[in-house]
Each structure stands twice: as structure tokens, then as C-alpha cells.
Design goal:
The chain is built from 5 helices and 7 strands; from the N terminus they run αβαβααββββαβ. The chain has helices at residues 12-30, 42-51, 89-95, 100-115, 151-154, and strands at residues 35-40, 65-71, 125-130, 132-133, 136-140, 143-145, 164-167. Helix 1 (12-30) crosses helix 2 and helix 2 (42-51) crosses helix 4.
Length: 187
């Protein structure tokens, strides 16, 4: 990502701190009090880590996000990572199902949603999950997915159905099969 260009093994918590600083700069430059965020894949984990207080630097979330859209975000991790998904080895470990990071984020997010005055409400959050195959869910031994993120990881249980959209797109053009619509290319 442009936020970490030139840095090789950056943890998601570090990127979350950088992202928080970027949001602060945008708000100061524009005079706005809130922004809308559309985050794809690991970007959704970065935003959630900041909001839930899992940053490497103390950069508190204070309601700066008006609306949050998570597109193909592996909220519970993925079955495979590096080198299939282009990320650092640290991020690859953090993205795995059952990783300490995924567990810590889940717990911190639950606490954030339960006690923070800045928690995200139903009207502020939308989850988009890809089904990869022109309306036919791509299901295999690992479940239904967009080619990288299983539906069960993209859609968290505590989210109501009206906050989720399933679309027949695959994760990105970086992953096979090549061709066809991707979550990154949504209009």
C-alpha cells in the first residue's frame, strides 16, 4: 500500500497508526469532522484495528468515520496468504485463521462496539462479500469465497443481514482465475 511503501515487514497495528495519522491530516486539511472509508481486504482490518485501539502508537479513534464499507475484508483471517496474497511475512502471519492478531482484533472490536461512545451503528457499516463466479457461489472444501476470503470471514455474525451485500465478484485481479469483475473494480 502507499502508506507503507518502502517498508518491508510492517505489522497491521503499525499501518493502523499510519492510517489514523492520515485521517487526521485529511480532516485538518478539509475542515471536515468525519470521513467515509471504503476499505478492501486487509484495509478493513487496518481500519478496525485503529477503531478498536490496536495501534502501535496511541492514536485514539474519536468518531472520525461517518460511514465504513468493508469490501472483501478477512475479519476472521484467510486459509492461505503469502506468497498468494501480496503482503509482508508479518502481515501474512497476522492474516491467518486463528492468528493472535485476528483473535485480539475480534476481542477488541467486540469491546469497542459494546462500550465506546463512538461504536459503529447499523446505518454506518456495510460489508461487501464476493461470491467470485457470476452469481454462482464458488464453494469448495474451504467453503464459499471470493477467491481469497471466505464468506464466513467477510461477514461477521453480529452483523444484521441488511448490512451485507453479496456480489458475484472475485477478490482482486492479483489472484487466479484472471479476468472478470473484481471487488476492487466495483463502481
Amino acid at each position: 500500500s502507499a502508506l507503507t511503501e518502502g517498508q518491508s515487514d510492517v505489522a497491521i497495528e503499525e499501518i493502523a497508526s499510519i492510517f489514523a495519522g492520515h485521517v487526521r491530516q485529511v480532516l485538518e486539511a478539509t475542515g471536515a469532522s468525519q470521513i467515509d472509508v471504503v476499505a478492501h481486504s486487509m484495509g478493513g482490518l487496518i481500519v478496525r484495528a485503529w477503531m478498536a485501539g490496536l495501534t502501535s502508537l496511541p492514536v485514539p479513534y474519536e468518531g472520525q468515520i461517518r460511514r465504513l464499507v468493508l469490501v472483501g475484508t478477512p475479519n476472521y483471517g484467510v486459509h492461505f496468504t503469502f506468497p498468494v496474497i501480496p503482503c509482508s511475512s508479518v502481515q501474512a502471519q497476522q492474516l491467518k485463521f486463528g492468528s493472535e492478531f485476528v483473535s485480539d482484533l475480534h476481542d477488541a472490536w467486540q469491546q469497542f462496539q459494546n462500550i465506546s461512545p463512538h461504536h459503529i451503528t447499523a446505518g454506518q457499516l456495510l460489508l461487501i462479500a464476493g461470491t467470485q463466479d457470476d452469481g454462482i457461489w464458488e464453494c469448495n472444501f474451504a467453503g464459499c469465497d471470493d477467491g481469497a476470503v471466505q464468506i464466513a470471514s467477510a461477514v461477521v455474525p453480529e452483523i444484521s443481514d441488511e448490512m451485507v451485500r453479496y456480489i458475484p465478484y472475485r477478490h482482486s485481479s492479483l489472484l487466479p482465475p484472471r479476468g472478470g469483475p473484481t471487488l476492487v473494480g466495483i463502481d
